[in-house]
Each structure stands twice: as C-alpha cells, then as structure tokens.
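Troubleshooting log. The previous structure file for this entry was overwritten by mistake, so regenerating from the original sequence record. Sequence copied from the archived sheet and checked twice against the printout by T.R.
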Amino acid sequence: MSDADTIRYDAAGLVTVVAQDAGTGEVLMVAHMTREALERTLATGQAWYWSRSRRQLWRKGETSGHTQRVLEVRGDCDGDAILLKVEQTGAACHTGHRSCFYRNVAPDGRLVEEGGAQAQAARPAGPEILTELAAVLAERRRAPAAGSYTAGLFAEGLARLNEKVMEEAAEVTRAARKETPGRLVEEAADLWFHSLALLVYQGISPSEVFAELARRRR
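Regenerated output below.
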C-alpha cells in the first residue's frame, strides 16, 4: 500500500477538509480534522472537526443547530485532503452566510462582499435555492418561530401538509388551463414550496430527489 492509499496527516496531526453541498456542489467551508475527528465522522454520519484555536474536537452545529449530515467522504490523489459531501442545515459559516466563500477577491487583493439584496436578486436562481429553502424549513421545524406560516404547517402535521400539496397541485393545473404564464409560475412556486415542506417534515433532503432525477437521466 502506498502513502497515497491512506490519509496523510501533517506534523500537527491534521488533514485539510473541504465541505461541499451534496445537492448543488457549492463549496461551504474549509476546516481540519484529526484522526479521531475523521473516525467520529465516519461512525456517526455527522461532521466532526478539530478547532485549531480552541484545540478541541467539535461537531458541526452542536451549539448553533446548523449541522452537516455527511453523505460521502472522499480523499484526494495525495491523501492529504478530504472532501465531505454534506447535507447542510442552516448556515455553514459562523457569520450566518450559507457558505464561507461569500466574498470576491478584488484586483487589489481586498475581500469584497457581493453587494446587497439587489445584487443577490440579479444572480440567476438554480437548484441551490431549493437546498437553501430546505435549510430554512428545517430550522423552522427545529425551532418554531411565533407567527411563522411554516411552523404552523408543521404543527398541524402530515395530513395538513398532504392537503396543501394537493391544493397547490390543483392550482397549478387551473393556472395552466385558465390563467397567464405569470400566474402559472407563481402557482408552481407554491407547489414546490409545499412539496419541499413535506419532504423536510418526512426527513428527506432535496439532494435525495436530485440524485433520483440524475439516476433516471442516466
């Protein structure tokens, strides 16, 4: 067995770890693991890391609730880096951003955050919005907020969620038959939202649906 066939820890006993959203491919964060952190990750299916500042093991989300369920663990060609494909609940970054890589590098080397709501709105939406929304829904279920429509849906349970999905599906077909394309888009968004809420209630990640669609495509 060559050195590349085993994980190679540095002089401090650490290996670099990249956490990636399993559904969208977005890079969420870079951290470090000791051998014990990797063993715990493999044994529990939850991401464990080594804090270089606190000099201790920590499980992602143990205080914030923003956990990482590990779906796949990969090593690179040299064995000195690990890739975790994860299902992220909430924000991966301690700043509250979805990813730690929320800033651009300007020509002068400064780190510049992408500008405000207008710039965010101008970015094309993609599958990542479903993953982000699922994380918000999961947080609403874990910690219900007063007056939250979603928290109210979850409190009413599976029967109510099933009912809402059927209602929204009927609205989609009605919009397709009798209303404008704009209304059809709005009703489809309602259907996707409530379908996603149903998945979250049942403990299913959007990444599992993406994987099934990919399997069918192949």
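The chain is about 45% helix and 20% strand. Archived copy saved in two places this time.
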